[in-house]
Amino acid sequence: MVQEFLTHIEKARDQSPNTVKAYGRDLDAFCDFLDRRHASANWTFAQVDRLVLRGFLGELDRRGLAKRSAARALSALRSFYRWMHVHHDIDIPAIRAAKSPRLEKRLPAYLLQEQITRLFANAETLAESGEFDAVRDLAMLELFYSSGLRLSELQQLDVHQLDLLGDQVKVLGKGRKERIVPVGTRASLVLRKYLLVREPLGRLPGADRNAVYLGRRGKRLSRVTVQRRMHRLYEAIGADGMHTHSMRHSFATHLLDAGADLRAVQELLGHASLATTQIYTHTSVERLKQVYHDAHPRAKK
Questions:
Q1: Residue from 72, 136, 150, 229 carrying the catalytic annotation
Q2: Which class for 107: exposed (0-12), middle (13-18), buried (19 or more C-beta within 10 A)?
Q3: Lowest CB count within 10 Å: 15, 66, 109, 174, which one?
Q4: Which domains does the chain have, with CATH numbers?
Q5: Is 160 considered catalytic here?
């Protein structure tokens, strides 16, 4: 049943591979919990009630799972039971009535302009050697900051999606929605240089000729490798607390700081809802408050 559901959301609802994997992990954990609760005896999804659900969510809490992860697990269960209600006539009111954990509101972490300057200066210095990894890492950094791509969007990018004559890139985002995002002049120049040094790797036996970002053996870089390479660049300037997604946050925050229209930024980021984009306006306001308190003579006690 779980596999049938996962196939449904992948094929019929066109959910992203990451969503399918996450829901699969959450439902596997739920099935494992039911196995242990029933001592591996036969059980059915129709037997689940409020106490069972509370037990599962309680276990997630005891395991130290973040509230956002617990909320996603509950979302996976709701989606699964909605599907079972339609296709297998199984309806559990307790699942529909369950409330998601209250999530703490966190402002996105982003780099200051001064940090961005140092980050790129260091990456450019490393790339001057012509060493493949350094040139590729600079090309990743440029595209992350120039176009505000998600990690998955950059990692899955194919050569045919890049239009360096038109200075734009076609991105396949969440829900397999396509959008076209501008590529800055500097990023375009760096990408041209990178594609030249990438060319021999694309001709290796078994190479992934479609992938933009390759490893030394010609294979598409994994998400973990992209994250590791980005973290190295952050660490080099002392920005250890940042993560790969921080470049996307920096892209949005710096655009809004410079007066960009909120709806334009929403389109560039590929957000379905304007409310998702509005968190970056809060970031800008918090930064202005900090500047005010640091600079105004009567702002401090």
A1: 150
A2: middle
A3: 66
A4: 2-97 (1.10.150.130), 113-242 (1.10.443.10)
A5: no
